[in-house]
TrEMBL record:
It comes from the Bacteria. InterPro entries: Papain-like_cys_pep_sf, Transglutaminase-like. This is Transglutaminase domain-containing protein. Residues 290-309 are annotated as: Disordered. Residues 197-257 form the Transglutaminase-like domain.
Length: 323
């Protein structure tokens, strides 16, 4: 996906804003960066145009010179800059789509049709592509796909979620504590480091879910990890969250994601409680990360960033018609 460069309407980007943002970014150790993002990608993927990029570099944004003599930047650094400065970026667009799902499912019942659309990681190999897909609900489905074959599809019913349970006071306090962390996109190699999160006050949704589960365990609750998808049109997004068993049911709690939605999605009221469950917005695949698509000619990756490219094409249909 390519986005238009530029910043959404709002306050001008000041030197003070840049300085505060880069001070947080600098807390992330450099060994967790991948300098692969060229200047044109900073503009097309993150909305960071050349003038702003120059200001960021002068203020201390880390970069490396590539073999071609061009400067390269870390994509997560640029993603964080885009989110916090309100730029029109791929991730900001995704968060807005999550919020639209959140709002729409409260208006009435419908369904999402979710299609896994893989890109072959080994183009030119003999024969057709043999994939193994990990689908919502834990189903594993094998499929041999040629260029014109339809990818596997899953239909997920959606609608107004049941009334949110009132969280016990100690669990609600834990959610508010987690939400005090500052949201930053982090590499797989550091996102789960509890010491880093506690020392810096920085976390992403996956890492903060670890702190939530650790805290809930200490309080005596039954918990489980979850990996799956945030379901949203036009593309769903892989996601980690935590679940706590309350009154016999698993409740998906993710105060960091609720904070992000209330802050960056116009469809979600800014006073939405961080204790609100993600019920209806997420669909569970497994208790831990699994490659959503494994290609028969290549080994399964250990790092999610190295998995075969998969798009989770999602269409919403209202009952009785198409939205």
């Amino acid at each position: 996906m390519t986005v238009a460069a530029g910043r959404a309407p709002g306050p001008a980007v000041t030197d003070a804003m840049i300085g505060a943002l880069l001070a947080d970014v600098a807390l992330i150790p450099d060994e967790h960066r991948r300098y692969t993002c060229a200047s044109w990608e900073a503009r097309s993927q993150h909305g960071v145009g050349p003038d702003l990029l120059e200001r960021l570099v002068r203020a201390g944004l880390s970069s490396r010179e590539g073999d071609d003599g061009e400067r390269r930047y870390d994509g997560l650094d640029l993603g964080n800059i885009a989110l916090h400065l309100g730029l029109s970026s791929v991730r900001r667009i995704a968060i807005r789509s999550w919020g639209r799902t959140w709002a729409r499912m409260r208006r009435g019942p419908g369904r999402h049709v979710l299609r896994y659309v893989p890109t072959c990681p080994d183009p030119g190999h003999p024969g057709e592509c043999a994939y193994r897909f990990a689908l919502p609900g834990g189903e594993l489905r094998e499929a041999v796909l040629g260029p014109l074959d339809e990818p596997p599809a899953v239909t997920l019913e959606c609608g107004p979620p049941p009334p949110a349970p009132r969280l016990p006071a100690d669990l609600a306090a834990l959610c508010h504590e987690i939400a005090e962390l500052r949201f930053y996109l982090l590499a797989e190699s550091i996102r789960w480091d509890a010491g880093f999160m506690r020392t810096t006050g920085i976390a992403d949704c996956g890492g903060s879910s670890t702190l939530l589960l650790e805290g809930a365990d200490r309080l005596g609750y039954e918990t489980r990890r979850s990996f799956g998808l945030i379901v949203a049109e036009p593309f769903s997004t892989p996601h980690h969250w935590g679940e706590v068993r309350l009154a016999g049911a698993w409740v998906p709690l993710d105060p960091m994601t609720m904070k992000v939605l209330a802050r960056w999605s116009p469809s979600v009221p800014d006073d939405t409680p961080v204790t609100r469950p993600l019920t209806g917005l997420v669909t569970r695949i497994s208790g831990e990360w699994v490659p959503p698509a494994t290609h028969g000619s290549t080994a399964a990756p250990e790092d999610p960033a190295d998995e075969p490219r998969v798009s989770y094409l999602t269409e919403y249909h209202a009952h009785g018609g198409t939205a």
